[in-house]
Amino acid sequence: MQMKKVAILANGGDVSGFNAVIRGIVKTAETNNVKCYGIIEGYKGLLENNYIELDSYTNASGILYKGGSIIGSSTNANVFNYKVEEDGKIFYKDLSDICVKNAKEDGFDCIFTLGGDGTQKSARDLCLKGLNIIGVPKTIDNDVACTDITFGYNTAVSVAMEALDRLHSTGETHHRIMVLEVMGRYAGWIALESAIAGGGDVALIPEIPFDLEKVAAKLKTRIARGKKFSLVVVAEGAIPKNGELTVKNTRDNGQGVDNTKLGGIGEIVANQLSELTGLEARNTTLGYMQRGGSPTAYDRVLSTKYGSKAMELAMEGKFGVLTVLKNGKLDSVPLEDVVGENKEIGAVSGNTKESNLRRVTMDDDLVKTARNIGISLGD
User: Fold this and answer.
1) Are 266 and 214 in contact (CB under 8 A)?
2) Which of 14, 109, 125, 141 is catalytic?
3) Cβ-proximal residues to 111 (8 Å cutoff; 6+ apart), any chain
4) In terms of Cα–Cα distance, which of 174, 138, 155 is closest to 286?
5) Any catalytic annotation for residue 97?
6) What averages of pLDDT result for each successive group of 10 residues across the chain (379 residues)?
């Protein structure tokens, strides 16, 4: 089909690289005489029919190095279970048909959905309702299925690595165990890769329930060999053996979204390791520092490649797919494959037991490398 008008939708938590993808789509669209629009604040904007035209010479100019998203994003807009208030009471309604109606009346030949598991679940569901959609995999957790890497991940790892570099000097000076809690709800990619890059001694990830007695034994061996400090990296979703996730609080962001806010496992690990080893321990929770700021060179290039490829797919009429990187080459996979067994339309927006999240496997080269160089994984 002849592309005339496309729209970009950024959804979920912000990452470095959002704007680089937007720029890649816009510039490729302009090269092919296609008009490009930005939907404001993710699926919320699609529901409210709120969008602007994007132009690489005006509002989409000079955005390559910027963090965040020039068209905003939404973290709580599941349009299939949308929170509405009527007569002072809260209800949840399926408003997805309004989104479909808006997109068709606006004449969008394709909508690009920039987001993670939940975003792409809704994208797949909207595809089944008749919209032409192409997804682009975003999340610092690197847990979107069917692709080797998501944009935003490399920047998050680089920030965590720099934090470890700084904690190293403090830990060495004061003979302390320095714990760094990083993001990673269900996948330990950030914790594992930053530990390798930053000289960590321990990496606790969601995929491997940890035993702090074994971690303490590792640290005591270091002490006996004259190393009176250690670096411990903990993913927010790391779980102790026979334990549970550490939940900071529960939000009310509507049905069909993950309302649990994780946090606090780093402090718990620091306190317990201090008791087990006799060394002082300090926890630093990196938090939103991992999401913000300028993207690395790698993420700028990856994001641009993703954006350009997504626009190419649109011009080829390949809809209902996710743009991916497999074995170093750009490709696409059906959104059906991305959502896995999470098939029911509108039931949830992702992050369920049925979701096809990309988690760390025990045969991954990162796991093998970590073990080879003596990083304890808590097991």
Assistant:
1) no
2) 141
3) 6, 7, 8, 9, 39, 46, 103, 126, 131, 132, 133, 134
4) 155
5) no
6) 93 95 98 97 96 97 96 90 88 93 97 95 95 97 96 97 97 96 95 98 97 96 94 97 84 63 92 95 95 96 98 97 96 95 72 82 97 97
- pLDDT at residue 91, as a whole number: 86
User: Helix crossing, 297-315 with 153-174: angle to 10°?
Assistant: 160
Please give the CATH topology (third level) of the domain spanning 156-291+362-372: Rossmann fold (3.40.50)
User: How far is residue 116's CA from residue 131's CA, in Å, rounded to a whole number?
Assistant: 19
Instruction: Provide the H-helix boundaries in the chain.
Output: 18-31, 42-48, 96-106, 117-128, 153-174, 189-197, 212-224, 265-277, 297-315, 335-339, 365-372
The H or E element that residue 1 is part of is none
Domain ranges for the chain, please list them. 5-151+295-339, 156-291+362-372
User: What is the CATH class of 5-151+295-339?
Assistant: alpha beta
DSSP run (H or E) holding 378:
none
Please give the Cα distance from 48 to 44 (Å, whole number): 6
Q: Decide: 74 and 43 in contact? Cβ < 8 Å.
A: yes
* Nearest partner of 119 among 42, 187, 14, 17, judged by Cα: 42
Backbone angles phi, psi at 49, to 5 degrees: 55, 45
What does the pLDDT read at residue 343?
Answer: 80
CB–CB of 189/141 below 8 Å?
Answer: yes
Q: 46: closest CA among 90, 85, 96, 109?
A: 96
